[in-house]
Amino acid sequence: MTRSRTGTAAVLREVGGALQRTEIVCNELRPDELLVRMVGAGICHTDLSVMEGVVPVPLPVVLGHEGAGVVIERGSAVTSLEVGDHVVLSFDACRACRACQRGLPGYCTHARALNYACARSDGTTTLRDATGPVHGGWFGQSSLASIALASERNAVRVPRSNELALLAPLGCGIQTGAGTVLRALKPSPGQGIAIFGAGAVGAGALMAAVAARCSPIVVIDPLPSRRQLALELGATHALAPDEVGERSSGLRKVLGGTLDFCVDTVGTQAVITQALNALGAPGVCATLALRGGANPVSISQTHLLYGRTLVGVIEGDADPHTFIPELVRMWRAGQLPLERVIQTFPFDRLDEALAKMRDGSVVKPVLTFGGIE
Ligand SMILES: [Zn+2]
Ligand SMILES: [Zn+2]
Fold first, then answer.
1. Is Mitochondrion included in the keywords of this UniProt record (predicted)?
2. Which ligand is nearest to the CA of 107?
């Protein structure tokens, strides 16, 4: 056993059960793989969905798909990354299929196998513990662990920083929200946007909308603390869902005009109805939430007919290899105040981080694993 390939991971053994901190070993690297010592790992709602059984994966498994860390070993075929590089781990994509070649790896033909199978293509697992194989490779990383196995495909080099842990949520949540605005909707300055839900994805969308000089920017969230934070981050209005109303008349009254864009981070019939009713003509509503299963919603074809679009967006339509460096530049320029939405927790306070994410008191918990060195 190579000592540097041992670590501690949060292992899910049964749906509905707690994550158990367990000593694990990363198996021998394949030529295209990397071993990353984790510095920070965000928790995303999709991780909670697995814990609740909404998204089925093989067990036991290590979750976590917003890792940031330092490369400590690389496979023989890895050429673009060096040992010692700081990396943010994002979702996995084959980089070769039609969608990947078009620069839209979120829609990779092999996305399900690469992100949800939690095993290599030959069925082998990347991790083991004292009792046997453990599934790794969740989103090509399984980063709720002090070490993780990833690849060049989903590891994005970022400038070396003592604040590397803060960059972890660029791998999924912040990328999804910010990418939806900057890559999918592409607003011009002065265009109006409403963002439904002020969790991490909504916060990413808000920061991007502020950077893109959208106006007005309306954030809708049931939690007063999140509405307050939205205003501090640059929203022009922050409303509770019942202030919007099903027909969104409350929203239109506040704005005195129409909206060009809506971002739905909730994914329910009620919110999609509100968002579409709030849209001007023409207008685009992006829906982002992963609810699991079919999740049917009904919409008015007549309403859409007037130039309105409802579009689903995965991972912000972004290619992490170009978009994450762009987000890092925005963060360094003060346009992406990640520290305002992130609270860090040492890995041994995992249960507290999960509880505070569930009750909404923390927007984005990031677990930390002992610093850069
Ligand atoms: Zn692909
Ligand atoms: Zn995610």
1. no
2. 1
Ligand number with the minimum distance to the CA of 116 = 2
Predicted confidence at residue 222, as pLDDT, reads 96
From ligand 2's centre to the CA of 65, what distance in Å?
6
At residue 75, the 3 state secondary structure works out as coil
| Ligand in closest contact with the CA of 47 | 2
**Residues, beta carbon < 5 Å, ion ligand 2:** 44, 46, 172
Q: Is the pLDDT of residue 32 over 50?
A: yes
Question: Could you tell me the distance, in angstroms and rounded to a whole number, from the CA of residue 267 to the centre of ligand 2?
Answer: 15
- Measure 95 CA to ligand 1 centroid, in angstroms: 5
Q: Which CATH number fits domain 3-171+341-368: 3.50.50.60, 3.90.180.10, 3.40.50.300, 3.40.30.10?
A: 3.90.180.10
User: 3-class DSSP state for residue 15?
Assistant: coil
Mean pLDDT of the chain: 95
Q: How many helices and strands, by DSSP H and E, does the chain display?
A: 12, 18
pLDDT, tens digit (0-9, with 9 covering 90-100), for 201-218: 999 999 999 999 999 999
- Matching CATH number, 174-315, of 3.40.50.720, 3.40.50.300, 3.90.25.10, 3.30.160.20: 3.40.50.720
- The conformation of residue 185, written as its DSSP 8-state character, comes to I
Instruction: Give the closest ligand to the alpha carbon of residue 96.
Output: 1
- In the chain, where the domains are located: 3-171+341-368, 174-315
